[in-house]
Design a protein that fits this description.
By secondary structure, the chain is of the alpha/beta class. The protein is built from 6 helices and 9 strands; from the N terminus they run βαβββααβαββαβαβ. Helices cover about 35% and strands about 20% of the residues.
């Protein structure tokens, strides 16, 4: 299989690429990034692209599955509009291009609570993207909705504090459906689901990510 990845330098994306390169089912992994990466593998093809101009690289989105885990925080982006461009526009542009090129399977990392009518900006943005990609006609459209992510070596104080609080609640049996999930577990689930082959639209809840 040939895998395509956008968001390859993010928390989930890094784990995903590492696992794909070690997986014998994938003979080639193409990643689409803003700048060069230091990963070395005979299976890896790196495309340095301008996400604002997908027409310059959309022809390269050809393969068996597109993994989409691109995203940023509003703090890093600087505004809701800037975050929307990364989390919604860039991902939808790639999904449209891959589908027009005949890619049969699409796997998206979304978020728990995603809904196009959500009052919360982040979950509304994620839900709007989910709705849009489901309409593209992929043979298999797989959407994962993880909770808080446990990232390797995270230096985000708020993120670490939030995960620590949830772990305390989980330990006493509270808020189990919000239990944080390691990024590598999300990446592994993405691969397992993709290897099963196209099977229509699938929404994978946070509780089911570790079960697939």
């Amino acid at each position: 299989m040939k895998a395509l990845v956008i968001g390859a330098t993010g928390a989930v994306g890094k784990d995903l690429v590492e696992l794909l390169l070690a997986d014998e089912a994938f003979e080639r992994v193409d990643i689409f990034v803003r700048r060069e990466v230091s990963i070395l593998s005979a299976k890896l093809v790196v495309h340095v692209v301008d996400f604002d101009h997908p027409e310059t690289w959309s022809d390269c989105l050809q393969g068996d599955v597109l993994f989409s885990c691109l995203g940023t925080t509003i703090r890093a982006a600087g505004s809701q509009d800037a975050q929307w461009k990364v989390d919604y526009t860039y991902q939808l542009d790639a999904a449209k291009a891959a589908r027009s090129n005949g890619v049969p399977t699409y796997v998206l990392v979304s978020s728990i609570g995603a809904h196009p009518q959500s009052r919360v900006f982040y979950t509304r943005m994620k839900g709007t993207l989910e709705e849009a990609v489901q309409d593209l006609g992929y043979d298999g459209c797989i959407i994962l909705r993880p909770t808080s992510l446990i990232r390797k070596g995270s230096d985000r104080f708020g993120e670490k504090a939030g995960v620590a609080v949830l772990r305390v609640f989980n330990a006493v049996g509270l808020m189990r459906r919000l239990a944080p999930i390691p990024t590598e577990a999300v990446a592994a689930a993405m691969i397992r689901l993709a290897r099963r082959g196209p099977d229509g639209i699938e929404i994978i809840s946070a509780q089911d990510i570790l079960k697939v």
